[in-house]
Specification:
The complex is a heterodimer of chains A (about 120) and B (about 110).
Chain A: E1 3-7, E2 10-12, E3 18-25, E4 34-39, E5 45-51, E6 58-60, E7 68-73, E8 78-83, E9 92-100, E10 105-109, E11 113-117
Parallel strand pairs in A: 2-11
Antiparallel strand pairs in A: 1-3, 3-8, 4-5, 4-9, 5-6, 7-8, 9-10, 9-11
Chain B: E1 4-7, E2 10-13, E3 19-25, E4 33-38, E5 45-49, E6 53-54, E7 62-67, E8 70-75, E9 85-90, E10 97-98, E11 102-106
Classes of the chains: A mainly beta (about 120), B mainly beta (about 110).
Chain lengths: ~120, ~110
């Protein structure tokens, strides 16, 4: 059974940093593209960043380019999102998403971790 | 980036009725379009991928169709658990993009 467990969310001040993690199990992690997708309170879904199975290709939404960095540790079956220079508009639930294809649709989602950017 | 526009924003129907949700892309995405269902407080769930392929475990009352720029999701004979928000998403090119969502509510 595929499981994706996010951690690292919380309250951070504007301009601060946070690192999200996603522990994956139940599939061959290194074979799949992974992404982060976020959802602001009461709003729709927004893709944030994606990374190929090998980690050699990384993709970002314009809204986070230059501030967020996606990475993965395949031996540890873990996906990361380093978020710097956080803004109020980054407040959202962040979902870890397992992809199928490249680019991909999302065949499995984590339960999400809430990031709140506020002073 | 490819913009996906869903219609209507809200659809009010009764259990047992049929629902048709639409998704239009600003440029062709071939058949690389997926549909998701999201209920309050839950993560989205994949329903249909690549326009017309049902995901594992999805009931056959859910069906997708379309290609190019115009797509639809049809739910035949609505069940109470089908009332939720539905999103389309394209995987033709990066960045991945989602539609704004259609809320399916009980009339």
């Amino acid at each position: 059974e595929v499981q994706l467990l996010e951690s690292g969310g919380g309250l951070v001040q504007p301009g601060g940093s946070l690192r999200l993690s996603c522990a994956a199990s139940g599939f061959t992690f290194s074979s799949y593209t992974m992404s982060w997708v976020r959802q602001a309170p009461g709003k729709g879904l927004e893709w944030v960043s994606g990374i190929s199975g090998s980690g050699g290709s990384r993709y970002y939404a314009d809204s986070v380019k230059g501030r967020f960095t996606i990475s993965r540790d395949n031996p540890k079956n873990t996906l990361y999102l380093q978020m710097n220079d956080l803004r109020a508009e980054d407040t959202a639930v962040y979902y870890c998403a397992k992809g199928y294809g490249l680019p991909h649709f999302v065949d499995h989602w984590g339960q999400g971790t809430l990031v709140t950017v506020s002073s | 980036e490819i913009v996906l526009t869903q219609s209507p924003d809200t659809l009010s129907l009764s259990p047992g009725e049929s629902a048709t949700l639409s998704c239009r892309a600003s440029q062709t995405v071939s058949r690389f379009l997926a549909w998701y269902q999201q209920k309050p407080g839950q993560a989205p769930r994949l329903l249909v991928y690549d326009a017309s392929n049902r995901a594992t475990g999805i009931p056959d009352r859910f069906s997708g169709s379309g290609s190019g720029t115009d797509f639809s999701l049809t739910i035949s004979s609505l069940e109470p658990e089908d009332f939720a928000v539905y999103y389309c998403q394209q995987r033709s090119v990066w960045p991945l993009t989602f539609g704004q969502g259609t809320r399916l509510e009980i009339k």
